[in-house]
Each structure stands twice: as C-alpha cells, then as structure tokens.
Specification:
With 87 residues, the chain is of the alpha+beta class. This is DUF1488 domain-containing protein.
Amino acid sequence: MALTFPNLSRSYDETGKRVRFCGYDGMFEIQFFVEIEALEMRMTHPARTEASYLAAFDDARTEITEAAKAIYSRGGRAPFVLTAGSF
C-alpha cells in the first residue's frame, strides 16, 4: 500500500519542539514529526508560538507530506523526523 495522509490533524509538541502528524500505510498509523527549525525557515517573521508553527505546517503541508513519503519509502522505523533539509 502507499502512504496516505487522510487525517489533517497535527499537534505541537512543546517538549520536543516539533509538530506531530500521522500518515497511514494501509491500516497502520505511521508517526512523523517536523522540527520547528524547519518551519521557522519558511516563516517571514517567526512568532515562535504554537499557532504560528501550526500555521507554517499548514502552509507547507504538500511539501511536508511529499518529504514524508520519500523518507518513509527509504525504510526505517517510526517515528520519522523531518528536518530543515528534508523539504
């Protein structure tokens, strides 16, 4: 099966300084994270708030999910972490 992202939910992980989201490979949920540094690079004026990180994630969702598919296709174990160089 191909990795899909039917669930648009995402959440901010304050402790890990990252945004969490999930993909699905068939019935299996695959956990992903995007480091906030990667999101800040895309923000014109980083506000460094939960709302701004989630908005930056939403703005880059297509690029993020494409990068997640590429990382997942290489194999490895979840959770997968996307960094500034990932997308």
